[in-house]
Amino acid sequence: MGIVNVTPDSFSDGGCLVNVQSAIQHAMTLQEEGAVILDVGGESTRPGADAVSVEEEMGRVLPVIKALVEQGCVVSVDTKKPEVMRAALDAGATMVNDVMALRAPGALEALISSDAAVCLMHMQGEPQGMQQAPRYANVVDEVKQFLQGRVQACEAAGITRERLVIDPGFGFGKTLAHNLALLKHLSELVDLNVPVLVGLSRKTMLGLLTGRDVHTREFASVAAQLAAISRGARLIRVHNVSAMRDAMSIWNAVEEQQNGT
Ligand code: 8Y7
């Protein structure tokens, strides 16, 4: 899954033509590099980021989604807002990536009348304050229970299990130790029998471990992503698709090798 951010830069608004055009261009490059899903988001989910209105978010993501769908891409919309989910699905998106795991009022309902896939992600707290004092008695058990509960809530609402993907939400209300515990014990989440997606690309935890800033975390990202693959992750949300493609080529060649034949 390739990350396509349609958020404003310091010079222009996110809905302006320049940003929309460059997001489409970037997404097409990710697709050519081997991304199977393009995850289009118009609201920054970074810790402490400001909220964006429904209108503004739609103005950012809908033109990009429409253009990518027209090009035959498989598009996921990264949003917490039911209104944006509905509009994105109408525009041809076939997956919703929700860091709130459909807990916003109306979010479950927005998915019922479609057959879109959904990524249910764990987050402790809200983006504004989630990194202030994350606390767990047992992070792996608590994240697992939360995700199991959200899978059940979806099924009870009529969103069938085969549409679902789960995600531990690295960095969302978690310390470095919490993130490492979740990665080390990822197979516990795999045991829920719902495909596991992970987002580790360029995250702060990798900076803490390497001392590198966000622009020089590609090798660390690939290493962390392979650690997740080795424990059973099925989807990887990345900024750098070609780096991960190369890593997967090697990984798969080794895994598929049989008896030297
Ligand atoms: C994740 C995510 C972000 C993640 C899923 C970032 C939107 C922060 N992280 N969605 N979104 N999983 N499913 O660094 O880990 O990309 S935003």
Low-pLDDT stretches: none
Total domains: 1
Rounded to the nearest angstrom, the radius of gyration is 18 Å
Order of helices and strands: EHEHEHEHEHEHHEHHEH
Strand order of the largest sheet: 1-2-3-4-5-6
Query: How would you name the oligomeric state of the polypeptide chains in this document?
Result: single chain
The distinct ligands, each listed once, are:
ligand 8Y7
Helix content: 40-55%
The N- and C-terminal alpha carbons lie at a distance of: 32 Å
The CATH class is identified as Alpha Beta
- Tell me the fraction of residues in β-strands, as a range: 5-15%
Specify the biggest β-sheet: 6 strands, parallel
**Structural class, from secondary structure content?**
alpha/beta
Average of pLDDT: 95
CATH architecture tag: Alpha-Beta Barrel
Strands, total number: 8
CATH topology: TIM Barrel
Query: Count of DSSP helices?
Result: 10
**What sort of overall outline do the alpha carbons produce when their principal axes are compared?**
globular
CATH superfamily: Dihydropteroate synthase-like
How would you portray this structure in words?
45% of the residues lie in helices and 12% in strands. It is of the alpha/beta class. The protein has a single domain, classed as Dihydropteroate synthase-like (TIM Barrel, Alpha-Beta Barrel). A six-stranded parallel sheet has the order 1-2-3-4-5-6. Strands 7-8 form a two-stranded parallel sheet. β3, α3 and β4 form a beta-alpha-beta unit. α1 packs across α2 and α2 packs parallel to α3. The radius of gyration is 18 Å and the shape is globular. The two termini are 32 Å apart. The model has no long low-confidence stretch (mean pLDDT 95). Ligand 8Y7 binds next to β5 and β7.
